[in-house]
């Protein structure tokens, strides 16, 4: 019984390895360059780089009512 379960497990491993071997891979240097280009192209839309105007900032501190 344990011999057949071991064979089944090994077949699953071989199937997974074949699947992974068939994937197209991108070199790390190319992926880094693509990421750099993406960041540079979208930098003007990044609120962490450009800031958020106080009128549209949902996290701005609320003013205290002076009538009380």
TrEMBL record:
Topological type in the membrane: Lipid-anchor
Membrane found in the keyword field: yes
Alphabetized Gene3D superfamilies for the sequence: Transducin (heterotrimeric G protein), gamma chain
PROSITE patterns linked to this entry: G_PROTEIN_GAMMA
Location(s), subcellular: Cell membrane
InterPro entries in the cross-refs: G-protein_gamma, G-protein_gamma-like_dom, GGL_sf
GO cellular component, one term: heterotrimeric G-protein complex
Pfam families, alphabetized: G-gamma
Keyword Membrane: yes
Transmembrane regions: none
GO terms for MF: G-protein beta-subunit binding
Family: Belongs to the G protein gamma family.
Function according to Swiss-Prot or TrEMBL: Guanine nucleotide-binding proteins (G proteins) are involved as a modulator or transducer in various transmembrane signaling systems. The beta and gamma chains are required for the GTPase activity, for replacement of GDP by GTP, and for G protein-effector interaction.
PANTHER family: GUANINE NUCLEOTIDE-BINDING PROTEIN GAMMA SUBUNIT
Assembly mode: G proteins are composed of 3 units; alpha, beta and gamma.
Record-given protein name: Guanine nucleotide-binding protein subunit gamma
């Amino acid at each position: 019984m344990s011999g057949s379960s071991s064979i089944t497990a090994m077949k699953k491993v071989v199937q997974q390895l074949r699947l992974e071997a068939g994937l197209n891979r991108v070199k790390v240097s190319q992926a880094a360059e693509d990421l750099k280009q993406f960041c540079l192209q979208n930098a003007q839309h990044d609120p962490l780089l450009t800031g958020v105007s106080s009128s549209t900032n949902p996290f701005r501190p609320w003013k205290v009512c002076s009538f009380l």
